[in-house]
Structure prediction request, 590 residues.
Amino acid sequence: MPKPFLHPLLRLLRYAKPYQPQIWGAIICSILRTLLDLAPPYLIGIAVDVVVERETSLIARFGIQNPLNQLLVLSVLTIATWGLESLSQYGADKIWRNLAQTLQHELRVDTYNHLQELELAYFEDRSTGILLSILNDDINQLEGFFNSGAQNLIGFFTRVFAVGMSFLLLAPGIAWLAMLPIPFILWGTFVFQSRLAPRYDTVRDRAGIISDRLANNISGIATIKSFTAEAYESDRVYQESESYRRSNKQAIALSVAFQPILRFLILLGFVLTLYLGGREVLQDRLTVGTYSFMVFIVQDLLWPFTYLSEIVDEYQRAMASVRRVMGLLDTSVTIPHGQQLLPTETVKGQVQFDHITFAYNERNHTLKNLALQIPAGATIGIVGATGSGKSTLVKLLLRFYEVQSGRILVDDIDIRDLNLCDLRRCIGWVSQDVFLFHGTVAENIAYGSFDATESEIIHAAKLAEAHEFILQLPQGYDTIVGERGQKLSGGQRQRIAIARAILKDPAILILDEATSAVDNETEAAIQRSLDKITVNRTTIAIAHRLSTIRHSHCIYVMAHGQIVEQGKHEELLALNEIYASLWRVQSGIH
Prediction:
């Protein structure tokens, strides 16, 4: 089970546990590369030692007395060192970058899959732009960290440890002076890190907000143009972008101030080594070769601290992204899958709402102790004023939301016990707000029935009275409908959505204002097709136009989350209540 309180880096490493061999391989290559990169000062020190000491040099202790032969051995050793460094650099870069791509891919897919499991209420409380920012910007930030940040972090600690140990072994008397600035540098770094982290959290939040603003504006570009609101929206984008710029400016102000301060501390360590080391040589307490090595290597000990702020900066950006991604992955799934299977071919389609009560986000109850029995194969109509709970009823049947009390049963099985996929496979839903994906007409009709043949797609389109207008499109069934189907009219989108539900061939068909966006002629054509496709199929038709449900087996009138009238068309007219009043208004009878 995820541990939200764990440090983001530990969370990330725990997530990457299946790739531990690659991680360790990359770490080893990075360490080896850093150690080999430190070799030149050592080799220079040995070369000076050979030239000065000759037959008593360090290499001479291994049995090679001739100085020329010593230089030859040193040259071969240098070539080998450079070759191994290049090889380890290649290995580190390749492993880290491949690991970055793999983790980025899997983290994005896992996060998206988890997002799909969350209930609709989660999306109602969050903007699309912020979620897209997490799925794209934050996960891409992690790619950058693995590509370079991880290597820089490992290289820094390896370099400091290796050089520090060399100082202690070769010149313990002055090593502590060279290392004197390090505690102050580290203390400043941790203070800097603690202040920088919340600033980068703010930066990531601001990035999500501006992403949300841009996504909304692009989706609503027609509305912006129709209300000539371009200047207003431009100003809003400016304000959000300015907030993002200011939050980044605050982070930058802190991060860039750190390096100049470090330079003075590093200068102190370098000067102490230069002066005190030279004095030791003059007093014959230190060899020239060792002194040469120390003067060169002290920069490798201290100068990496000048880049520490950049390393920490990159690290903090990545950890801010990890916190946001892992925060999304930690979100609990409140509508879990049931364990009982419901094969589509065995579904009869009997539906029962057993005294259900439901409210959105602890608001006033949308449905109150509602009871409704729908026999298998029956066609029922549901009417009522806006906000009476009609659409909520079918969303609960699809388990988009969970009832607070009562039960919903399909074929006498509580839907909470059913596998969610099985439940939704046996239900075809045509929503009032039709959503078409960017793709062809045929792809949108076959959505959810991905193995459908061309003839099956055409047959479904004919039943939905869509075939004729599809043939008149530029590429027929291969015509691209545009994002959200924007290239089609509302009535055309509605008929494609009906064809999509017909092709699914569900045991239970839900028509949620399915003819709301069509003209009278198209409505009549769709009604003829519905008369055919509702045979031997449980059909729940939510309608504003009463003419579309007048022939239903039973019509239910809802008000304030309850059923207040029920019966056939003629029976409800005879009651002369709400339904009769609605019918008179729509039919022009006064």
About this structure: Residues 511 and 538 are 11 Å apart (CA to CA). The first strand starts at residue 351 and ends at 358. The mean pLDDT is 81.
